[in-house]
Amino acid sequence: MLLVLVLSIFIGIFSVVLRFSLWRNKCSQLMPGKKPRFFDILGDTKEFIVYDTWPDKYLWQMNFFDVLRRRTEEYGKQQLFCLWITYIPFVVIIKAKAVKELIEKKVSRKFFFYKWLEPAIGTGLLTSDASKWKQRRKLLTPCFHSDILRGFLPDFNEYSQKFVEFLQEETKKEFTYIETPVTLLTLDIICETMFGVKIGALGNDSSQFVKSFRRFTEIIILRVFKLWNWPNCIFKHSKDGKEMMRHLKIVHDFTRNIIQEKKKRYLSGQRDQDNRKRKALLDLLLDRHMEAGELSEEDIREEVDTFALANPNIEPLNEFKKFSMTSNVCVKHFNLSAISLTVLWRSHSIMVLISSEETSVGRQERWTSLREKSPE
């Protein structure tokens, strides 16, 4: 009986691997890239995993991009190439012409990396599907009118002056890691323009909110490089996953407390005396919530957290960009083509650039989609 059970499990696992291997083998013939052996479950993953044994926590991440650089050199004459992380295809686009073809197509479903952000920002503007995105975009666009942004110019000038004074003190030191004060300055400006509150991060980097915000963004970025943490069922029980949830609670509590405080002031008639040009994003969204009922309190939290997280000057995001630049000796492949890395995974189909049989310079390329569904 036990033998039959073990045999059944083995046959089941083998059939699943066989099905995925057949699908991957068929797809890999349609685009440039190394062709994994038929029963090679890891695919190109092996080239990335080896670097995690290195002592420096950043070296293996830099080598992650080094693999991309070497592949880009190898397939530099192509429009794109494919990396197989187990049975998941990552299509890396290296020519601007291919990018143009891509952005002309309607891709309504986001890459699964976006799912990792949902615990942090829910289904806000960054992570929502097409229908919700259009609705939210319509609501949020007026909040970024140029007249409203101009109202914050005095604040930008004030924080810029504080930053200059901070740097003057830093020049007395032998060395300064500039990204840290830039990140703190950015958080100050975010909290002023998004929440309408001053947190003084530049002069007080020991604030629990500041620490938690920086740490959870770092964990999200590092997860990209830790392939074993990709499945949510593993990540949420991992050390990083538990730590991220602790920091997220602090960030979410901070946002919710501000929303509640602003709402109480609104209901008690103690609204800010500033005119509309001086309202923070949170105040504008509360107007929508209280007057039109278009947004719930949780919707408001999602959006303000989304814009805070999406800020380009957050330190871990800068680290991510820095790795891609410093490890890329052949900058022309990335910068002159106006991209660094494009990853695409479209609802169980792979977008493939197939060249016509003509080899002349003026040949036409066309995008097609492999309609064979990925095994589920």
TrEMBL record:
Recorded name of the encoding gene: CYP4V2_17
Natural source organism: Araneus ventricosus
Family: Belongs to the cytochrome P450 family.
Protein name according to UniProt: Cytochrome P450 4V2
InterPro entries linked to this entry: Cyt_P450 (IPR001128), Cyt_P450_E_grp-II (IPR002402), Cyt_P450_sf (IPR036396), Cytochrome_P450_Monoox (IPR050196)
Subcellular location: Endoplasmic reticulum membrane
Top-level division of the source organism's lineage: Eukaryota
Keywords associated with the record: Endoplasmic reticulum, Heme, Iron, Membrane, Metal-binding, Monooxygenase, Oxidoreductase
GO cellular component: endoplasmic reticulum membrane
